[in-house]
Write the structure tokens for this entry.
Amino acid sequence: MLEVQRHSPRPRPNGLNKALPLVDLAPAASDLRRDALAGLCATPKTLPCKYFYDDHGSWLFDQICTLPEYYPTRTELVISRRYAAEIAAACGPQALLLELGSGSSTKTRIILDHLRAPAGYVPVDIARDFLRHAADELAAAYPGLPVVPVCADFTQPFTPPALAARRTIVYFPGSTIGNFTADDAAELLRTIAGLMGPEGGLLIGVDLRKDPNMLVRAYNDARGVTAAFNLNLLTRLNRELSADFDLAHFQHRATWDPTPGRIEMQLVSKRDQAVHIDDQSIEFRAGEPIRTEYSHKYTLDQFASMASTAGLAVRKVWTDHARLFSVQYLTRA
Ligand SMILES: C[S@@+](CC[C@H](N)C(=O)[O-])C[C@H]1O[C@@H](n2cnc3c(N)ncnc32)[C@H](O)[C@@H]1O
């Protein structure tokens, strides 16, 4: 497996001397310990995928987005560029863009470039330093646009900053919705319906069902970047919880499970071993997995029907020619 370089600290963007004020509603450090111990002591063992995204994990995710096997980002960008005018028309003028899981805010720029008189941009992400940098860069590129970054876990209740706008458009690209089981995704869509309000909308990227071989390749890239991203979770537990995972004794695995229609990513113990966090000893058998991420893939009908259980109706769907990925606009039903 390729050794993926650590990224270096990023300089402040040109044209911006001071960092933007950030609304810090980040989960407490103790949440990681609690969630990691609960997941690793459960059967089967799990770790929540939101903890992939420390600063290095966020950077690794951006590397994944450029891989030849990883079609979702490339395809969502193509759709967003091709239909930018229609997407902006659906969102309407003077909209506040509230983005969940904004990462590097790359796709956002296509939307902002086409929105009529956007009222502001609120990127929400759990990865504080990465968010801060992405928001600073975006604010430098869009002078005059109010930008208020919020570091928060969007699965927990939070109140976004109140900015004057005609309506709120919740933007949720990257098929991050696929990381949730159907019940949790429906619950999150209900939360989103609350965030967007009665006049607002949801602009969401949803990955579609396709040839399983293409899916398995996308999560098992030849350069091993996805493997490094997955294993970085253990490095994070070693650093932040003083755990003693030996990364040489775990390996990345990503498989397609046709019944729920999802890729399941795991870290598999290569041998019998014990790992320690605090005074807890966590025993692994050879071949035993830790489930680290689901990526559900939907048909258009499946997604529409799940959204309807959350009180949302699909108003527009844009896809690529091969129907690999979709960008969808929803409002309250
Ligand atoms: C799959 S990446 C998508 C990034 C970007 N939106 C895109 O489309 O390329 C998921 C993003 O959501 C963030 N994230 C994941 N779980 C989160 C949570 N529970 N609360 C807030 N942000 C979260 C991650 O830090 C990461 O930036």
Remarks:
- The first strand starts at residue 23 and ends at 25.
- The pocket of S-adenosylmethionine is lined by residues 50, 53, 58, 61, 65, 73, 101-103, 107, 125-127, 153-155, 173-174, 176 (CB under 6 Å).
- The chain has a mean pLDDT of 95.
